[in-house]
Every structure is written in structure tokens, then in C-alpha cells.
């Protein structure tokens, strides 16, 4: 799993940004990535 802080433009208020903790999670089999998950952004 990888995590990091990301600043993103708010879709409702284009002049504003919000900060979120982003992640990517992987399942590895036989030394290869077989699955990947990450979060969704505000809509």
C-alpha cells in the first residue's frame, strides 16, 4: 500500500482546493501486480 497527501480542486467551488490522503493498494502474486485499488474523488 502507498499513501500520500494530495491537494485537489473542489468541484463545487473551482477557486478552492481541499487536501486529502490518497492511497493505492495492490495485490501481488508471483511478483506481479494482479489487482489495484484507489479512492474516488468528490463529485
Automatic annotation (TrEMBL):
Source lineage: Bacteria, Pseudomonadati, Pseudomonadota, Gammaproteobacteria, Oceanospirillales
Protein name in the entry: SnoaL-like domain-containing protein
Domain of life: Bacteria
Species per Swiss-Prot/TrEMBL record: Marinobacterium lacunae
Entries under Gene3D superfamilies matching the protein: 3.10.450.50
